[in-house]
Amino acid sequence: MQSDAQGRLARLLDYLKSDSGNTRLLSDALALAIECGDLPSSTQVIEYLEAGAVQDPQLYAQATYLLLRMGRYAKAAEYGDHAIAAGVEHPAVIFNTAFGHFYNDAYEAASMLLERLTQSPDCSAAALMLHVRALDHQERNEEAEPLALRAVQLEPENPEAIGLLALQQFENGDNPAAIRSAHEALSRNPDQLDALIACASAHFEQGTTEASRKAWMHTVDVYPECGRAWGGLGQIEFNDLNFDQAREHLERAVRHMPDHIGTWHVLAWIHILRSESEPARKALKHAYALDRNYSETHGAIAACDVLDGKLEDARQGVRRALRLDPDCRAACYTQMLLMAKDGKPEEGKQLFRDMLART
Fold first, then answer.
1. Cα(132)–Cα(134) distance, integer angstroms
2. CA–CA separation, 188 vs 191, rounded Å?
3. Mind listing the pLDDT tens digit for each residue in 120-162?
4. 164 in Cβ contact with 148 (< 8 Å)
5. Residues 288 and 297 sit within 8 Å (Cβ to Cβ)
6. CB within 8 A of 165, min separation 6: which ones?
7. At a CB cut-off of 8 Å and minimum separation 6, what does 253 contact?
């Protein structure tokens, strides 16, 4: 049967060479390309679709799914948007278009489409879970958690749905619930990534460090490119003052998760606490590129200035950081260093203690 489909597809591709605008031929070719899953033939069909300049929403809808199969997420989202704008309302087309946006890192666009599906009581668990993931990327976790709960209610044995619920419970500050849900998901699939992250993170927040370490270690064994897991291990070692081990974990974390500003900060503070300003500045340069107005970055750069004897630069950096956030921890720490330089070490320590008590 597969060889018959490939033969029919080959004949259609020959016809399309001279008639690339024929919608019937294009539709049949798209259907066969999806059935065959042959990348070179699929590429040819898309090329003919584009060459023919056919403005047919149904063809765009078909092409959206084929492009997803090809891993061309941006183009899939573009074609899906055209189909939907032209009046195609089939849930599968909306889901496929949202899927393309999600894997093209356009999380807000994915969420807006998925709302059309998840507002319905008949929405599938798959659409609910994709919507949860899109909202999670936008840090809209309070909106995401009820959707995750609905997915669990639809598929109560699905470890992915339960793991996603655990992750939203953690992000919303309910660590006990996150741990319970994570354990439930892991009892069904011990390698479920969302549940592992929720379990490790919630245990860390509760102070049960060994349970957190165990979950993170399992995570990196199964998912060695999970930057969040390496960052979690690095934070544990940092808190235990095992700076060499922490640095090793954190350097792996930023290789896999270069856009996470907090990981660059922990890495920088390892070097600051060792009086190593140059590598600290390198880490903070990455953090600054991610967000030029983050107070903690300015406060940490000021701490490097103290290490390098640039005290006036440090004072300016502290003022800049405190304008952005009056409770900036890095700025308060740097103020403590500056006050020690000014012969007021006890006043500086008290200032830092007062800040910790407030935050």
1. 5
2. 9
3. 999 999 999 999 999 999 999 999 999 999 999 999 999 999 9
4. yes
5. yes
6. 145, 148, 149, 151, 152, 181
7. 227, 228, 230, 231, 234, 260, 263
CA-based radius of gyration for the chain: 26
CA-CA-CA-CA torsion sign (303, 256, 258, 210):
negative
Degrees to nearest 5, angle at CA 144 with 140 and 146: 140
pTM above 0.90, yes or no: no
Conformation bin of residue 206: beta by default, left when phi > 0, alpha when psi is -120 to 50: alpha
Q: In angstroms, rounded to a whole number, what is the distance separating the alpha carbons of residues 45 and 232? A: 46
Q: Which residues contact 273 (CB under 8 A, 6 or more apart)?
A: 243
Alpha-carbon span 148 to 161, nearest angstrom: 6
Query: CB–CB of 242/233 below 8 Å?
Result: no
* Residues 351 and 339: beta-carbon distance below 8 Å: yes
- Using CA atoms, how far apart are residues 151 and 194, in angstroms rounded to an integer? 14
Decide if 314 contacts 306 (C-beta within 8 A): yes
What is the maximum alpha-carbon separation in the chain?
87
Helices (H) and strands (E) in the chain, counts: 21, 0
| Residue 359 exposed, middle or buried by CB count within 10 Å (0-12, 13-18, 19+) | exposed
Residues 6+ apart with CB under 8 A from 2: 36
Q: What type of residue is 132?
A: V
DSSP annotation string for 188-236: H-TT-HHHHHHHHHHHHHHT-HHHHHHHHHHHHHH-TT-HHHHHHHHHH
Backbone angles phi, psi at 156, to 5 degrees: -65, -15
pLDDT tens profile 303-344: 999 999 999 999 999 999 999 999 999 999 999 999 999 898
Among residues 218, 209, 165, which one has the least CA distance to residue 191?
218
